[in-house]
Amino acid sequence: MVVSPDKIHDNSLPIRERMETLVRVKQQEITQALAGLDTVDFHTDSWTRGDNGGGGQSMVLQNGTTFEKGGVNISVVHGKLPPQAIQRMKADHANLKGTGSDGSVDFFACGLSLVIHPHNPHAPTTHANYRYFETIDPETRETQAWWFGGGADLTPSYLYEEDAKHFHQKHKDALDKYDETLYPKYKKWCDEYFFIKHRGETRGIGGIFFDDFDSKPADEILHIIESCFDAFVPSYIPLVEKRKDTPFTPEQKQWQQIRRGRYVEFNLVLDRGTQFGLHTPGSRVESILMSLPATASWVYDHHPEPGTEEDKLLQVLKSPADWV
Amino acid sequence: MVVSPDKIHDNSLPIRERMETLVRVKQQEITQALAGLDTVDFHTDSWTRGDNGGGGQSMVLQNGTTFEKGGVNISVVHGKLPPQAIQRMKADHANLKGTGSDGSVDFFACGLSLVIHPHNPHAPTTHANYRYFETIDPETRETQAWWFGGGADLTPSYLYEEDAKHFHQKHKDALDKYDETLYPKYKKWCDEYFFIKHRGETRGIGGIFFDDFDSKPADEILHIIESCFDAFVPSYIPLVEKRKDTPFTPEQKQWQQIRRGRYVEFNLVLDRGTQFGLHTPGSRVESILMSLPATASWVYDHHPEPGTEEDKLLQVLKSPADWV
User: Fold this and answer.
1) Could you tell me if B64 lies within 8 Å of chain A, comparing CB atoms?
2) Do B300 and A283 touch (CB under 8 A)?
3) If both were cysteines, with which of A34, A69, A172, B183 could B172 make a disulfide (CB 3.0 to 4.6 Å apart)?
4) What's the pLDDT tens digit per position in A265-277?
5) A5-318: in CATH 3.90.226.10
6) Cα–Cα nearest to A225, from A17, A71, A4, A22
7) How remote is the C-alpha of B137 from its chain's centroid?
């Protein structure tokens, strides 16, 4: 489907329609950029929520020449949220209220979520996700509460400081254009969110992360989200281009597998989106678990030797650095 | 350490000491039986809980000739449980009460937990765990509430019905010796407990599972637990002996890797013991996550062709069979 990007900036349209257009356009743009580095192309699956409203489109590349596994998914869903779900959200959104006679709420949500795992242990894994949520008055169809969330982060198996700096700088630039207070806040939030408590280490070297973002006009936040989206390809693609053909040893591949085990631990034990999806009836499990790597390994009581490249990464995961 | 098994049957000793002896004896017996099938031996790590009481002994075999990874761990711990932990347990144990001035409770717990992952995709993975928990009056040191829990289950990548029958029969026999109502109940409980909700399938072909077992005299339950323990080696070792050298294709190995991915999903998302351990400060994470396989794989939207051996397993995981 070809989507006209003009709608993104059309002020006469509701934010929900503009954000939906943005995620559809970015899915095409990002998958094209990634496919440019591989001889295998993305496979597209469209799905609907059945009795509920909306659906999504998963684009997955498996067993490519550069990428072992990568998925760029969008979902555009609407329907009614049960009163319990509303109750949980109220802590962060005072103006959220039940509107149906049973306390249920009409909602709309859309977002893009991607995870890319290259083969080469020197090329980093990445994840990004930008999403919009709103509740709707069932009478007037006007937006009631709304917020944006999202972020992008990098998970290398080997630390190249210049790569970490590059990734952070691109995302800092994207935010600074609108508000210089955002990057420091979202960088810190990212380190905190992706902290694997039971391991005492972060999943990767961070990036940006934010949620419940409703403190500026929605139109302005949409521009910020677009700016972050625009930063993604230039922040990540050059790193893969640079590292995808770097020679590596079997030991380096094995270290990557262990780091992927930690990635799985974070996603299955701690990631709120994954938890929510797995416990929500009607979710498309394949799209949620697309984030898991094609291969992962767990070695009992594995600790890299001090001073090695593996240990250098671990030290940064144990105490996050400021990259820019 | 050599432990005298005589204490297991010494009625003059408290149950806690007899159960501790049982798990220590069984750790030696089971690891010896497993090591007999491999050229690599178990590596032993002893650990203590630091400021808290007790500790454990992890015995792990990695990268053997028969076993890719296996662990047989025991823990024998004691100390004080905070009031919140007691609150959660009260639903099942009415006679459980806070005894410290702050509502905390003195407790003792011991158990053995094992997970064995063979290399060969025709040889099944297995898990077993037997445990005892009690609360103690801080004045008299007498046992207040107590219960046993445990079970053993089998997770094949390929279904050999005779293997499933053998494993179930041995555990049925072990329980029938004491009470013929137990196996049907614990077999069903096992199928329910190891159900991976988000996949609509069980982790494996089941076995037995029970918790909060305090409905018979403790001495009698201890004998039942010993009987289950005794069933383990004869229920599992012959299956590995029979399958460990069966020729297999790369496709069969890959199917095993996918099934191991599901194993990881169950353990990290649903297993109560793992969840409890990962969220409890002071846990030894390496011992808890010893259960994870050395290698696992996630393939997007993978479904075996109907009528294949892979599909035959899936059908049984989707609707559990009665094996004996």
Assistant:
1) no
2) no
3) B183
4) 999 999 998 988 8
5) no
6) A22
7) 29
